[in-house]
Write a structure and sequence with these properties.
13% strand; globular; 44% helix
């Protein structure tokens, strides 16, 4: 489970990250565009957890194309780290624009400034084109992967290329009042939020989830403590249409 930090700022962001790491989260997701990298880094340090035990993700704003190295070095400085665990292109440009950024990403990985590189909010054909033209496979595509956006072939397609599908915005991008989710939650004695997180995990999709509530941070982690039966998974799969990929956090 990863902690998302979109719209978290200042001391609240630092405290939220610290609480999450202390609660057991070991992956923290931010972005240059969130304007909170310094606060995120401060929260990680305040937790007292060794840097190497926390995966740090940040995202490159596509409007900064042509300034990749400068942007990366500023992110590292703000976060107070010597390397990123994962650096993502926040959203795609046209094919040539994404490729130019991606080439600089690959150079940063070769130079040891980042350990892995990936993309965010890319459609399958955009991922395929990037791989075909560069020969470099993203480690991750971070997308909105909720029932509203569910396409059965997506995660297996990514997996066939060696790409991890990571889901973001599981609560804000889905209908928490949907009767199928509510009925499933009641049947399992869980919250709708826990059911959504578990559904992601049943599909092999790790989740980025945002919270600054200690109770919610802990409750989210318990999504690993139970499972959903195949019929429950299938019912949730059918909630939405087979569309996905709109730009979001």
């Amino acid at each position: 489970m990863s902690l998302g930090t979109w719209q978290m700022r200042g001391r609240a962001a630092s405290r939220g990250v610290q609480m999450a790491v202390e609660a057991g989260y070991r992956c923290i997701d931010t972005a240059t565009g969130y304007d909170n990298e310094a606060a995120v880094g401060a929260g990680i340090r305040a937790s007292g957890i060794d840097r190497d035990d926390v995966l740090v993700i940040t995202k490159f704003p596509e409007e900064a194309a042509g300034h990749e190295r400068e942007t990366l070095l500023r992110s590292l400085d703000l976060l107070g780290v010597e390397y990123l665990d994962l650096w993502l292109i926040h959203a795609p440009l046209d094919a040539d624009g994404s490729l130019a950024i991606w080439e600089r990403f690959a150079e940063a990985r070769e130079d040891g400034l980042v350990r892995a590189i990936g993309v965010s909010n890319f459609l399958p054909d955009q991922v395929d084109d990037l791989v075909a033209r560069s020969g470099v496979v993203p480690a991750v595509n971070q997308i909105a992967f909720g029932p509203r956006f569910f396409t059965p072939a997506l995660a297996p397609h990514h997996a066939g290329l060696g790409i991890v599908t990571q889901g973001h915005s599981p609560f804000s991008e889905n209908d928490l009042e949907h009767p199928v989710l509510r009925a499933t939650a009641e049947r399992h004695g869980r919250s709708v939020q826990q059911i959504l997180l578990r559904w992601h995990l049943e599909h092999g999709v790790p989740v980025v989830v945002k919270s600054v509530s200690p109770a919610h941070l802990t409750a989210n982690l318990t999504a690993t403590d139970f499972s959903l039966a195949p019929d429950a998974i299938a019912a949730i799969d059918r909630i939405g249409s087979a569309t996905w990929g709109r730009t979001a956090p």
